[in-house]
From TrEMBL:
PROSITE patterns in the record: ABC_TRANSPORTER_1, ABC_TRANSPORTER_2
SMART domains reported for this sequence: AAA
Coiled coil: none
Transmembrane parts of this sequence: none
Lineage, opening ranks: Bacteria, Bacillati, Actinomycetota, Actinomycetes, Kitasatosporales
Keyword entries, A-Z: Antibiotic resistance, ATP-binding, Nucleotide-binding, Transport
UniProt domain ABC transporter: residue ranges: 10-236
InterPro entries per record: AAA+_ATPase, ABC_transporter-like_ATP-bd, ABC_transporter-like_CS, ABC_transporter_ATP-binding, P-loop_NTPase
Cellular localisation: Cell membrane
Primary location class: membrane
Protein name: ABC transporter ATP-binding protein
Length: 320
């Protein structure tokens, strides 16, 4: 297949996974990832992210639906898919007595056309640790070794299962820079993460899973736009919410009052903020600690998880 940026490198339709005891961990999900895109799979604990990624990696057969990676079934056509993909599992599980360089060399023996191990260790900032035994690495350094091994085959598609778990803030930012650089070179990346900031900063598109289903898919901006924005301020003594212009006319969907602090939620942030500030100027009121902000991905995530628990999720999908 010819590579082009519109090509769907990963295509998932109606995918299901059922474990031995009959538990359905993945309940019919659909999404696709284009070449050169970073796609993040988010979700609450046990949502089914790892179960999904394992199906994409060809480690298990689906109970229903279909997966295509680079146009092939990763389970039945493993030989066609595996050499072109890199996989970073949650637990690498290497022999701990080997050094970092020996581990990379051993792994390279299993990869056709592997890059020199020094090159991948340098990419993840582990070159100074080449002679150190794996058991002496910190948790974060082990994660970086996992990533180095996934990069040995210079893969077209990279699966990263919680790539920055255990990394400190600097290590996390270094990994983001590396993953972005790989994307800029055309690598397609699918990652799972618990760090919403990671998905917000790094991913081109994301999906939020909950109890085996996808509740929402879209760009980070599209997903956050699905949640109301917030305006928070303190009213001076002698003023009350009833003194504000009618909240419905400001486009405010709901509000709370805690002492002097008022919190408004609105889907029409500009209109609400403008009218509120005009009112403040006209009445000569100072709105102390004024804070006006769009929803964060974290708020969207929490809102979706809550909604999805309360009822069968109405799936929101934005154009791919
Ligand atoms: N081998 C298994 N047998 C039975 N159930 C399993 C098995 N592996 C996972 N599950 C169940 O499937 C569900 C999804 O698990 P999965 O590990 O895919 O979730 P996840 O979204 O990756 O979670 P986390 O964020 O906690 O890593 C969970 O309820 C889990 O208990």
């Amino acid at each position: 297949m010819e590579a082009n940026e519109h090509e769907h490198v990963i295509e998932v339709t109606g995918l299901r996974r059922v474990y031995g005891g009959g538990f359905e961990a993945v309940r019919g999900i659909d999404f696709s990832v284009r070449r050169g895109e970073i796609f993040a799979l988010l979700g609450t604990n046990g949502a089914g992210k790892t179960s999904t990624v394992e199906l994409l990696e060809g480690l298990a057969a689906p109970a229903g639906g279909q997966v295509r990676v680079l146009g092939h079934d990763p389970y039945t056509e493993r030989a066609a898919v595996r050499p072109r993909t890199g996989v970073m599992l949650q637990e690498g599980g290497f022999p701990s007595e080997l050094t970092v360089a020996e581990t990379a060399r051993m792994w390279a023996g299993c990869v056709s056309g592997a890059r020199p191990e020094g090159e991948v260790l340098a990419l993840v900032g582990l070159e100074a640790k080449a002679g150190v035994r794996v058991k002496q690495l910190s948790g974060g350094q082990r994660r970086r070794l996992d990533l180095a091994l996934a990069l040995l085959g210079d893969p077209e598609v990279l699966f990263l299962d919680e790539p920055t778990t255990g990394l400190d803030a600097e290590g996390r930012h270094d990994t983001w820079d590396l993953v972005s650089a790989l994307r800029d070179r055309g690598t397609t990346v699918l990652l799972t993460t618990h760090y919403l900031e990671e998905a917000e900063n790094l991913s081109d598109r994301l999906a939020i899973m909950h109890e085996g289903r996808i509740a929402v898919t879209g760009t980070p901006a599209e997903v956050t736009a699905s949640e109301p924005s917030r305006i928070t301020f303190e009213l001076p003594d002698g003023y009350f919410v009833g003194d504000l212009p009618p909240l419905a006319a400001l486009g405010v969907s709901d509000h709370t009052v805690d002492g002097r602090t008022v919190r408004l939620r609105t889907r029409e942030l500009q209109r609400a903020a403008t009218r509120l500030l005009m009112w403040a100027r006209e009445t000569g009121v100072e709105l102390r600690r004024l804070d006006v902000r769009s929803a964060s991905l974290e708020e969207a995530f929490l809102g979706i998880a809550k909604d999805a628990s309360a009822a069968t999720a109405t799936k929101k999908e934005y154009a791919a």
